[in-house]
């Protein structure tokens, strides 16, 4: 890891200083000094790499925030009081299970780390309305992933649900509070399913869901399909998500589960791809850290990528 | 026996219980040289006193000749000044002779390359003496593009009594000549003349950083950023290219040559250092083009020290063989490394010159100090090495006794035969008395060039525009 503690300047200042040096060297007496300009270009490269890594890391953190935030917003719409109890229990479960099976080890550590990373985000706008709830919610998501690792879709239960045979997951730990509405977020397909009074409303849900029909493909970029098909439009922030995905997948028109996995693998390899191109081990550490953190939250079937 | 330590060093006090007499034996630590502990004393300083430094007077190279009798300096204005040591005064055998100006001449002038619209600086990058073969002295001096061979000769007699010329040189009217005489040589005031005997030009596209005379005394090499050329001292219109690291596509350039030197004894061997911190040893017998090295000296980078500036501080600014040819020394921004020619994996010794600067690299990058190219030198016995630092400090490392000392070249300590007091920089925290904190170092006062007499403990240290000469104290 580049030791920036000693550097009073941030990467951006270094970049501008370096560019200024290169520019000034053109007018220096005696002609352009090849050696000095080569060294300046190395500083430029190092600063740029560092800056880009920080940016990627920040975007990932923001992405996690947004995912959790959108879910939290939905939770809070439904039943804030029930939520608090439920979440407290669930978060307790999650972290306490950290020492259990090896499968749970990683997400538990990540989930406990997540709140920390959330707090370290740079943008002040990311004020979590219910930070405890959100981090616990994320923790919950992770726990559920682990249990549901065999299915392709992972469902996030905001509160207890009556038995809906949508997955084989065991949600027994959550069945403490009764409510008549369930919102489910599929973290793989990013489909939100609202279940109300025993009836399943699924808007553009993923394939494993029962009654799935609307094209999940349109899901990423057109959240409008939501609104047309259900009144229970969750308060997503579609623009933020789309922007994120646009950033990493600007040319992809259609997104389905396979494309999502591609995105993840692209991102995972993109990080280390950056690294291997420059052959700098410290950035490899940085890259792996960031990608690991995010990838771990994205589903059990991405574990292979995390492993490398 | 008591060991007493004060600011100057360690004092061994012998107490004889019988007679209660004290016999003091002073052993001053911290000054290197020659196996015995040396005290360095101020001898002379050359150059203007005022602080307003003209850029042309900035000293850019310092070099003793092979006997040590002559000391040459080159400056940014293209001038070469040669000092000669006075013969030892027989009435005062303790005092070594002083160095006085022997010759001054303009070696290089500013030039303009019209084809590339580039101005070529007249700054003297390096001076190298040739071994003396006759009464005259020869040296090579180089700027960025052109190397010149200068002959420095003395004239202390002149012919007088020409028949056709007056003494002032005017021609006489032949009709007025009535008698003939034979001109005779009469003594005159010593005159030292410098004349350019060879000009080796147009062989380097990039800036020349090194020249080195071969031990065969017939050839020499010159190195620029990407190429090393081999010359014959008698032939100026051609040279052989022996190293070329220019990539086919300049965008793929990753390193440049920073210094090159011939082995002191083996006329087929030379080394060149790179900006990546590696040194390559080449054998000219292997092939005509020595792109493929015989040995590669490289120390793996310490990953915990990685920073934005790792590449800059690992760039080697100077490489020097030891006199015996068994070792070589390299200087990078923060340290001096001694390499055994038989071991390529890592240096045998590493000395930190100013490690306290590691946390200041950002500001040193901003003010360009991080690009300063410090040189280094060996003493005659190869057991002490010396290099410069900031604040007009210079450092000596005694390899045998594992001691190092920091001394200062300043006008304040310039009283005749005044002993130099060791200096100390406090890295942080509590600053002791007489110590200097890192933040109060003057980074404009840098010692880049130093030279050590080949036989004696006499050193020449160049500050920005002054040349200091120090000698060891003779008792």
Automatic annotation (TrEMBL), chain A:
InterPro entries according to UniProt: IER (IPR008653)
Domain of life where this protein originates: Eukaryota
Pfam family, one: IER
Record family assignment: Belongs to the IER family.
PANTHER family: IMMEDIATE EARLY RESPONSE GENE
Protein name, UniProt field: Immediate early response gene 5-like protein
UniProtKB/TrEMBL annotation, chain B:
UniProt xrefs under SUPFAM superfamilies: WD40 repeat-like
A molecular function (GO) term: protein phosphatase regulator activity
Family matches, as Gene3D superfamilies: YVTN repeat-like/Quinoprotein amine dehydrogenase (2.130.10.10)
Keywords per UniProt: Repeat, WD repeat
Recorded GO CC terms: protein phosphatase type 2A complex
The keyword Transmembrane helix is assigned to this record: no
InterPro entries referenced in this protein's UniProt entry, alphabetically: PP2A_PR55, PP2A_PR55_CS, WD40/YVTN_repeat-like_dom_sf, WD40_repeat_dom_sf, WD40_rpt
Subunit structure: PP2A consists of a common heterodimeric core enzyme, composed of a 36 kDa catalytic subunit (subunit C) and a 65 kDa constant regulatory subunit (PR65 or subunit A), that associates with a variety of regulatory subunits.
PANTHER family: PROTEIN PHOSPHATASE PP2A REGULATORY SUBUNIT B
Family: Belongs to the phosphatase 2A regulatory subunit B family.
Name of the featured protein: Serine/threonine-protein phosphatase 2A 55 kDa regulatory subunit B
Encoding gene, per UniProt annotation: PPP2R2A
């Amino acid at each position: 890891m580049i030791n920036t503690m000693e550097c009073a300047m941030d990467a951006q200042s270094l970049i501008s200083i370096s560019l200024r040096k290169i520019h000034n060297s053109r007018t220096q007496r005696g002609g352009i000094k090849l050696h000095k300009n080569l060294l300046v270009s190395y500083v430029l490269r190092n600063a740029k790499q560092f800056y880009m890594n920080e940016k990627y890391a920040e975007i990932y953190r923001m992405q996690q925030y947004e995912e959790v935030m959108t879910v939290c917003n939905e939770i809070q719409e439904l039943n804030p009081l029930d939520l608090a109890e439920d979440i407290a229990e669930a978060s307790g479960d999650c972290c306490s299970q950290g020492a259990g099976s090896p499968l749970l080890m990683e997400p538990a550590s990540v989930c406990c780390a997540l709140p920390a990373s959330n707090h370290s985000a740079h943008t002040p706008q990311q004020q979590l309305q219910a930070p405890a709830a959100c981090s616990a919610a994320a923790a919950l998501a992770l726990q559920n992933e682990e249990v549901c690792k065999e299915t392709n879709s992972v469902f996030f239960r905001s509160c207890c649900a009556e038995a809906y045979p949508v997955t084989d997951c065991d949600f027994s730990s959550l069945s403490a509070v009764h409510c008549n509405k369930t919102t489910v977020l599929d973290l793989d397909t990013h489909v939100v399913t609202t279940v109300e009074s025993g009836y399943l409303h699924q808007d553009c849900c993923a394939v494993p869901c029962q009654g799935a029909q609307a094209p999940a493909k349109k899901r990423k970029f057109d959240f409008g399909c939501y609104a047309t098909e259900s009144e229970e439009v969750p308060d997503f922030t579609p623009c933020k998500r789309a922007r994120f995905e646009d950033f990493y997948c600007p040319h992809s028109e259609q997104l389905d589960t396979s494309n999502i996995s591609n995105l993840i693998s692209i991102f995972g390899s993109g990080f280390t791809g950056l690294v291997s191109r420059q052959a700098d081990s410290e950035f490899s550490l940085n890259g792996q850290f960031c990608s690991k953190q995010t990838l771990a939250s994205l589903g059990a079937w991405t574990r292979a990528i995390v492993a490398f | 026996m008591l060991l007493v330590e004060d600011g100057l060093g360690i004092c061994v006090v012998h107490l004889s219980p019988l007679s209660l007499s004290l016999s003091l034996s002073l052993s001053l630590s911290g000054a290197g040289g020659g196996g015995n502990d040396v005290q360095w004393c101020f001898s002379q300083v050359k150059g203007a006193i005022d602080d307003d430094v003209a850029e042309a007077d900035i000293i850019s190279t310092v070099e003793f000749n092979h006997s040590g009798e002559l000391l040459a300096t080159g400056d940014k204005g293209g001038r070469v000044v040669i000092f000669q040591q006075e013969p030892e005064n027989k009435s005062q055998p303790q005092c070594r002779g002083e160095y006085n100006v022997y010759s001054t001449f303009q070696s290089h002038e500013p030039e303009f390359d019209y084809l590339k619209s580039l101005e070529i600086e007249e700054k003297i990058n390096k001076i190298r003496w040739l071994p003396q073969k006759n009464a005259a002295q020869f040296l090579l001096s180089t700027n960025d593009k052109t190397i010149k061979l200068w002959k420095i000769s003395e004239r202390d007699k002149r012919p007088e009594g020409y028949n056709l010329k007056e003494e002032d040189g005017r021609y006489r009217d032949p009709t007025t000549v009535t008698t003939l005489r034979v001109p005779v040589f009469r003594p005159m005031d010593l005159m030292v003349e410098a004349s350019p005997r060879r000009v080796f030009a147009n062989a380097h596209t990039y800036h020349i950083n090194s020249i080195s005379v071969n031990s065969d005394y017939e050839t020499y090499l010159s190195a620029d950023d990407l190429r090393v050329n081999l010359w014959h001292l008698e032939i100026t219109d051609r040279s052989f290219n022996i190293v070329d690291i220019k990539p086919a596509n300049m965008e793929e350039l990753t390193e440049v040559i920073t210094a090159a030197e011939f082995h002191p004894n083996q006329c087929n061997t030379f080394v060149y250092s790179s900006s990546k911190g590696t040194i390559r040893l080449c054998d000219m017998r292997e092939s005509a083009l020595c792109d493929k090295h015989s040995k590669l000296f490289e120390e793996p980078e310490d990953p915990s020290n990685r920073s934005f500036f790792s590449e800059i501080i690992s760039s080697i600014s100077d490489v020097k063989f030891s006199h015996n040819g068994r070792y070589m020394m390299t200087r990078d921004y923060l340290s001096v490394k001694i390499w055994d020619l038989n071991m390529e994996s890592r240096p045998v010794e590493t000395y930190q010159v100013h490690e306290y600067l590691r946390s200041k690299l950002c500001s040193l990058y901003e003010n360009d100090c991080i690009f300063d190219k410090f040189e280094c030198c060996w003493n005659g016995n190869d057991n002490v090495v010396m290099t410069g630092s900031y604040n007009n400090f210079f450092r000596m490392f005694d390899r045998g006794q594992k001691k190092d000392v920091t001394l200062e070249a300043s006008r304040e300590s310039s009283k005749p035969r005044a002993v130099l007091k060791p200096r100390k920089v406090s890295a942080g925290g509590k600053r002791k008395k007489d110590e200097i904190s890192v933040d109060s170092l003057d980074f404009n006062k840098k010692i880049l060039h130093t030279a050590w007499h080949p036989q004696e403990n006499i050193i020449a240290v160049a500050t920005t525009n002054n040349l200091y000469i120090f000698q060891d104290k003779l008792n």
